[in-house]
Amino acid sequence: MATKGVVKGIVSNLVTVEVEGPVSQNEICYITVAGTKLMSEVIKVIGKNAYVQVFESTRGMRVGDKAEFVGTMLEVTLGPGMLSKNYDGLQHDLDKMEGVFLQRGSYTDALDRDKKWDFKPLAKVGDQVSAGDWIGQVDENHQPHKIMVPFVMTDNYTIKSVAAAGQYKVDDTMAIVTDKEGKDHKITMVQHWPVKRAITCYREKPRPFKLLETGVRTLDTLNPIVEGGTGFIPGPFGTGKTVLQHAISKQAEADIVIIAACGERANEVVEIFAEFPELIDPHTGRKLMERTIIIANTSNMPVASREASVYTAMTIAEYYRSMGLRVLLMADSTSRWAQALREMSNRLEELPGPDAFPMDLSAIIANFYARAGYVYLNNGSTGSVTFIGTVSPAGGNLKEPVTENTKKVARCFYALEQDRADRKRYPAVNPIDSYSKYIEYPEFEEYISNHISPQWTEMINDIKTRLQRGKEISEQINILGDDGVPVAYHVIFWKAELIDFVILQQDAFDDIDCNTPLERQEFMLLEVMKILNAEFEFEGFLEVIEYFKKLINIFKQMNYSEFKSDDFNKFYDELQKLVAERIKK
């Protein structure tokens, strides 16, 4: 029998309910306000009092209102039909809702219960199966969507029967399995899973090592991220976080893309809704939205549901990973999620940490990022969840708690810089402050050596050293003037500028330059390295400036030309002639 309770106190979205029976942490309850049931989650229990965070506006709620606990935690509904959907933070289908504004207490089903799917069995009668094992598959927007043994069924089962190939609804019985006691269990296409618990139905979770190709040169070349890796993009307003996220979402070598808009401004979320359905997937030639799920939670939605939205997105990502797919999860912005944690912590009158964030903020962020990863499934297949979050530090302060705590756990750090954005050097990723710790992994170095070049890591370290040296000389030139430093210093500075203009800068709105395959990145990097290692003859700094501007111009024309096309080869020949003119004999 469901536990009931009565509202005893209200502090904005934090409501104290006196309960008449057992309740558990993270359990869902519904509080009835003027005939409307509002969804809430238990976040603390002390004696007879349960403290719940309400995922809706509490306007009109009174002491004495009734509450009913449902006996389950905050869950997502998992099954075919999630791709191309627009959900809110609680996985309610926004497209099924009516009107311009979301109505309080209006909840919709995450799946289409009436649609029929073409089912193909993968398992047979007599097979031994456990949680996460594949029973069959349906085609979901040209993706193989596996029908799995529910994740809660962790024991070993024997398949008693499997549905024949044909068309079925999501609630139809796809298989019947028998447990050790001889009891039968029906399996449908639908299952439920609590969002705060990681899905761990896999055999092994090794350290990730396979390069995730994004087509963004400053990421792939200088600070690569891997399949199943973690990264974050901090940066002040206007430095291009959203454009960079769109580029990665569109171009990365991923099967499924999940966008979690967590507490972002409504106009930015509207941009996602407007632009994503129009984007063409460069891998398939079809609409990118076919393999995308958007979870929208804007800044004017209740704060409590911001926290739920990131967990909802991660759980859906883990579900698709269990099918052996590569999932890319983008969260924008985890700062808003942390602010929601801070708000609820303050209302609970907990001891505050730095900047009034919860004391356990670092543990919460670490636990969440740890759910990403590269896994070997029980059947030997591999799947991955790559997580890239953005952080919006107030005033661009990268020393604030959210950025600092995220730096401890995320392996890639892509610092967007206001100065680079002001100089229109996009992507505005600072090449010196940013880093990728995957370069240090021997597994990654072995993978890069086998798939690209044994000298790749050495070249990258050389490039980073030259960029640092170029920055130091730039400061000297600013102080002493062009005449105050030797010509050799100007050459070092302009070689660093060559790296910046040719490798780091990229036009996200050009059809060719927006996406650079790894083969092309390697070719251009080797050409740049030849010039970096060459010795040139100059009489004065003006000759250096004029010469390197010509080099940069030709390289940029190559970046805008189809790889190895007639135009590309023409500019390449021009480049070789120009280099031969000045090279020291």
Automatic annotation (TrEMBL):
Annotated ranges, domain ATPsynthase alpha/beta subunit barrel-sandwich: 109-196
Domain ATPase F1/V1/A1 complex alpha/beta subunit nucleotide-binding, first and last residues per copy: 215-436
Functional description taken from the UniProt entry: Produces ATP from ADP in the presence of a proton gradient across the membrane. The V-type alpha chain is a catalytic subunit.
Gene that encodes the chain: atpA
Residue ranges constituting the ATP synthase A/B type C-terminal domain according to the UniProt record: 448-527
Domain ATPase F1/V1/A1 complex alpha/beta subunit N-terminal residue range list: 10-71
Keywords: ATP synthesis, ATP-binding, Hydrogen ion transport, Ion transport, Nucleotide-binding, Translocase, Transport
InterPro entries attached to this UniProt entry: ATP-synt_VA_C, ATP-synth_a_Xtn, ATPase_a/bsu_AS, ATPase_F1/V1/A1_a/bsu_N, ATPase_F1/V1/A1_a/bsu_nucl-bd, ATPase_F1/V1_b/a_C, P-loop_NTPase, V-ATPase_asu
Key word Ion transport present: yes
Binding residue positions for ATP: G235, P236, F237, G238, T239, G240, K241, T242
Organism placement in taxonomy: Bacteria, Pseudomonadati, Bacteroidota, Bacteroidia, Bacteroidales
Native organism: Falsiporphyromonas endometrii
Domain of life of the organism encoding this protein: Bacteria
The protein's name: V-type ATP synthase alpha chain
Family as reported in the entry's similarity comment: Belongs to the ATPase alpha/beta chains family.
SUPFAM superfamilies: C-terminal domain of alpha and beta subunits of F1 ATP synthase, P-loop containing nucleoside triphosphate hydrolases
Reactions that this protein is recorded to catalyse: ATP + H2O + 4 H(+)(in) = ADP + phosphate + 5 H(+)(out)
